[in-house]
Design brief:
There is one protein chain. This protein has 273 residues and is of the alpha/beta class. The protein has one domain: Rossmann fold. 45% of the residues lie in helices and 19% in strands. Strands 3-2-1-4-5-7-6 form a seven-stranded mixed β-sheet, sandwiched between helices. α3 runs antiparallel to α5, α4 crosses α5 and α9 runs antiparallel to α12. The longest helix is centred in the C-terminal third of the chain and has 16 residues. The radius of gyration is 18 Å and the shape is globular. It binds S-adenosylmethionine. S-adenosylmethionine binds next to α1 and β2.
């Protein structure tokens, strides 16, 4: 399992090109918005992360873990906005290496720490964190029961999970691939809403909120498609294709199709221990 995930996210990665192009384009260091094409690898981009951070802020957590932190866009933004340290964990070591370099390049006022590890066996002591975030990462995980068991273990009493995830929609049978998180069906692990809520309850979490972000997600994806159509002329220093390869164009189009057909949905869920 882990080899496939690392292959999916790291096989097209070119660390040297990404860092060289960023340094050349932004000698004073890129902003969060300038990094967003590669470090906000979820539907909704930086706007969705800002919305998520507002939600996190409302709970005033002292210790936050971002599971499946990718290239770290949410971590850096949250650390700056919440003025606190954020821990990231990701199974793809190649992404973590670049994440650390992006932080060094870009941020003066952020504090982040990063661990390479698997959400199914979290390398943390019991009751370590107040809040755990999943932003488009549960969708890659084959054993949600084990992942939630681990979350329950490392959360402090009253701690929360916040998920910004893609779920199966009512027309799931119409799902098309590749999508940004999986090149083929076997590598995608979308779950139905009710099944996820049931698993959370079975793992002793109480559901505090369940919001559907699908319409916003679809509107965002449509705007991105227009921008991406002109990308050849714009020649931006970084683009999602630098992580996901030339197939990204098709992946983006398929996300739009899957949201339009209601094969997939985008939701935010908050659950408390
Ligand atoms: C679609 S990307 C999202 C990255 C980031 N959260 C974002 O929104 O930009 C999914 C991330 O989850 C990570 N991931 C997948 N399975 C994982 C696992 N079992 N444990 C930890 N990280 C995992 C991948 O390596 C990848 O970085």
């Amino acid at each position: 399992m882990s080899t496939e995930i690392a292959d999916h996210y790291a096989q097209k990665l070119n660390q040297e090109t990404i860092i060289t192009q960023l340094k050349a384009a932004y000698p004073n260091g890129p902003t969060h918005f300038q990094l967003a094409p590669i470090d906000q690898l979820h539907i909704g981009g930086i706007k969705a992360s800002l919305k998520l951070i507002d939600r996190i802020q409302a709970y005033s957590p002292q210790s936050v873990l971002d599971i499946g932190s990718g290239l770290g866009g949410l971590m850096r933004l949250a650390s700056e906005r919440l003025e606190q340290s954020i821990t990231g964990l990701d199974i793809t070591h190649g992404l973590n290496q670049i994440n650390n370099q992006l932080t060094a390049l870009s941020c003066k006022d952020t504090s982040t720490s990063l661990i390479t590890g698997d959400a199914h066996a979290l390398p943390f002591a019991d009751q370590t964190f107040d809040l755990i975030i999943f932003q488009h990462s549960l969708l890659n995980m084959p054993d949600d029961v084990q992942v939630l068991k681990e979350c329950q273990r490392i959360l402090k009493a009253g701690g929360r999970i916040i998920m910004h995830e893609v779920l199966q929609g009512p027309q799931f049978s119409e799902m098309v691939y590749p999508v940004p998180w999986a090149r083929k069906q076997e590598d995608s692990h979308l779950i139905q809403e009710q099944a996820l809520l049931d698993l959370l309850k079975a793992a002793n979490f109480s559901i505090e909120c369940m919001d559907d972000w699908s319409q916003e997600a679809l509107a965002w994806r449509r705007r991105q498609a227009t921008k991406e159509a002109n990308i050849e002329q714009q020649k931006p220093p970084v683009s999602p294709a630098m992580v996901l390869g030339p197939e990204f164009k098709q992946m983006g189009a398929n996300v739009m199709r899957n949201l339009s057909s209601q094969a997939a949905r985008v939701v935010e869920i908050v659950a408390q221990k």
